[in-house]
Design brief:
α2 packs antiparallel against α3. The chain is 52% helix and 22% strand. It is an alpha+beta fold and 164 residues long. The protein is elongated and about 70 Å long. It has four helices and five strands; from the N terminus they run βαββββααα. The protein folds into two domains: 97 residues, Kinase associated domain 1, KA1 (TATA-Binding Protein); 54 residues. A hairpin with a 5-residue loop joins β4 and β5. Strands 1-5-4-3-2 form a five-stranded antiparallel β-sheet. The mean pLDDT is 91.
């Protein structure tokens, strides 16, 4: 996978493993015990989550979630999702909703001022600032993802140990 070329902030991928989902889960359980110093691996049903341990984790460190789907021919379809730390992602989504809310409030105020033939300059200024803030959030998130790309490759290598 090449996250450097992806536009998405949370890149997804899908591939097929020749191993069964049971064998993959067993390998993940074994690695969970072996690599406890460097990685955290959580297994919930058919989902495996790969994190960095506390001493290797930074605010831009990614995590990797894979979902296993057993196929009839004893192979497994592996669907993966890279993402930022859940706390950071939640914070970014919160900021997006705040910005969208402020934009909508001032859009309604601009419409009201327009219908009453009152000045609308302040309303459009705030709306413009919200658009600038929204783009700034996007580029900040892209920069954080760029910083985390080496760790994404590290998690991808760990995933390949599990699924192949």
């Amino acid at each position: 996978m090449e996250p450097e070329k992806s536009i998405a902030l949370r890149p997804r991928f899908e591939e097929t493993s020749l191993k069964s989902s049971t064998a993959i889960l067993e390998k993940a359980k074994w690695l969970k015990k072996e690599l406890v110093a460097d990685y955290q691996i959580k297994i919930i049903d058919e989902h495996i989550y790969f994190y960095f341990s506390k001493h290797k984790r930074t605010y831009y460190s990614p995590f990797l979630q894979i979902e296993l789907e057993a196929n009839e021919d004893q192979t497994t379809t592996v669907k993966g999702l890279f993402g930022p730390e859940q706390l950071l992602w939640t914070f970014f989504m919160f900021l997006h909703f705040i910005i969208a809310g402020v934009f909508l409030v001032f859009a309604m105020m601009a419409y009201t001022h327009w219908s009453l033939n009152q000045p609308m300059g302040f309303d459009f200024t705030i709306m413009g600032l919200m658009v600038v803030f929204w783009f700034a959030l996007y580029f900040i998130a892209r920069e954080n993802r760029k910083k985390g790309i080496p760790q994404m490759h590290e998690l991808e290598d760990l995933m390949r140990l599990v699924i192949h």
